[in-house]
Write a structure and sequence with these properties.
Elements: H1 6-31, H2 37-61, E1 76-78, E2 81-83, H3 90-100, H4 104-108
Antiparallel strand pairs: 1-2
Bound molecules: zinc ion.
């Protein structure tokens, strides 16, 4: 098993914190009752396209090949053979679930916020 060194682990932690911090900021600026409508509109206009692009990129990457296997998921050992997840893979299933029920992310993954 390969382990990552401390510097790489720290860099990955900072990347994750940066992404979750961005999401927290967008959520705060668009959902707080004391945020004025102009701010909500300005943040929505600039950030919703970014969020759509991020999700669209994920959905585009995690598509089925001609065998019905996900092209976005890395190959893993399945029943002694190297194979890929069937589509819809866990990434797509989670994305669809959270699109339909956004609040479910906080019970499913309580570490989703900083
Ligand atoms: Zn996938």
């Amino acid at each position: 098993m390969t382990t990552i060194n401390a510097a790489l682990a720290h860099a990955l932690h900072l990347l994750r914190q940066d992404m979750l911090g961005y999401l927290d900021a967008v959520e705060f600026l668009t959902s707080e009752d004391d945020t004025d409508d102009d701010t909500v509109l300005a943040v929505a206009r600039t950030e919703v396209p970014r969020l759509v692009a991020a999700l669209r990129g994920t959905v585009t990457a995690h598509r089925a090949d001609h065998h019905g296997l996900c092209l976005g998921c890395p190959a893993t050992w399945i029943d002694g053979r190297l194979g890929r997840e069937a589509w819809p893979c866990p990434t797509i299933e989670r994305a669809q679930r959270f699109l339909k029920d956004p609040d479910s992310i906080y019970s499913a993954t309580p570490y989703a916020r900083l």
